Amino acid sequence: MKDKISLIITSLIAISLIVVGWIAGFNLSELQKDTLIILGIICGCSVAYCFIAGEISRNNSQMDKLWSVLPIVYAFVIMIKGEFKVRLILMAIVITLWGVRLTYNFAKKGAYSIKFWQGEEDYRWKYLRAQKPFNNKIIWAIFDLLFICFYQNFVVLLITLPGVAVMESTASIGVIDILSFVFALGFLAYEVIADKQQNAFQVKKYEYLNSGMKLNELPAPYNRGFCVKGLWKRSRHPNYLGEQGIWVSLYMMVIGAGIATYGVFNWTITGCMLLILIFAGSSRMAESISCGKYDLYPGYIDGVFKYLPIKAYKDVGGNNDETVNVNG
Which domain, by its residues, includes 189? Predict the structure, then answer.
């Protein structure tokens, strides 16, 4: 119930900020319009590719592979069209580092192949495709086109548009810009740490499992099945917190450039707000899957906040006599 209330509140806040951002209004220069046309063409080609390749190969992770690549392309197009202004360079640096990290992590899961449309599919699409009504091929194809291919491509484009907003700004780099850059790098470092801790846990866990042991036979804390060490002790999704923080930080540069109306709002806030909504839904689905796999996961949900590292998970060590469901 708490999670549902949190999702509703998050959705209402995000939608409210989006509406206010658009009400604040926007005026585009010819340069910005030309840039948006280029970005729109790239986005449209990506939508078409993701849908066609995904339906033919039955691998619906085509957009997942491009999620970390397209923002880099968009950032460089914006930076070049904006004649390498400092803000655009700072944005491109953050986005490139972010993209390299995410691409590397996805590649480690076997997601990329020489035949680009092949590779390991994200487990969430396999899970969702087996659920009603998505197990109907027509309904799934519609969902694939509208959400996986179009909506996600659209959001990936939107999160980079603060660069378009500031590309003609003549305001000097100030405190807000510097803080935005530092915060973005800080959130990126936070994600990297979370990645390393999660990876170390999973590698060790699967070493035990591949040796023939069952999950409930593993030594603590691996017998739980999920990581509750390091950042994961105080946050169920520290990587998601870092991800959202990066794009909110980049939006802050719009404020630093003096482009935002009423000091805060600009229509390009839409991207980071929609991203927050995606993560709200994605985390909910991932946790639903984890609850079905691990008996102790509901207690983890009750004991730790989803994003903010406020409350620590108690009894982090676990006990070998605890029963852990190994189904799935």
Answer: 1-27+172-313
